Inverse folding.
């Protein structure tokens, strides 16, 4: 399973990450960081839908998201890419 880390102090609550998430697992929280921005969170605190695509991290203008993929996720991605060639 992949793991996503949100660096809340960098987040400005733009929600670009939520817009690009293919499994729709991100939402704006009620928490605010020290700058007063409402930060993003995982819906229902459930990371299981995450595919490790890292679209959220790639689109974040403030580099507030880090995605760690497991070896199993990387192998699955390679297999899926090979089938679509």
């Amino acid at each position: 399973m992949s793991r996503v880390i949100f660096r809340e102090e960098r987040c400005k609550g733009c929600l670009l990450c939520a817009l690009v998430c293919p499994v729709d697992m991100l939402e704006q929280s009620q928490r605010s960081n020290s700058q007063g921005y409402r930060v993003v969170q995982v819906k229902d605190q459930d990371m299981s839908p995450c595919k490790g695509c890292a679209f959220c991290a790639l689109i974040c203008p403030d580099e507030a998201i880090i995605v760690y993929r497991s070896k199993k996720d990387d192998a699955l991605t390679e297999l899926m890419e090979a089938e679509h060639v």
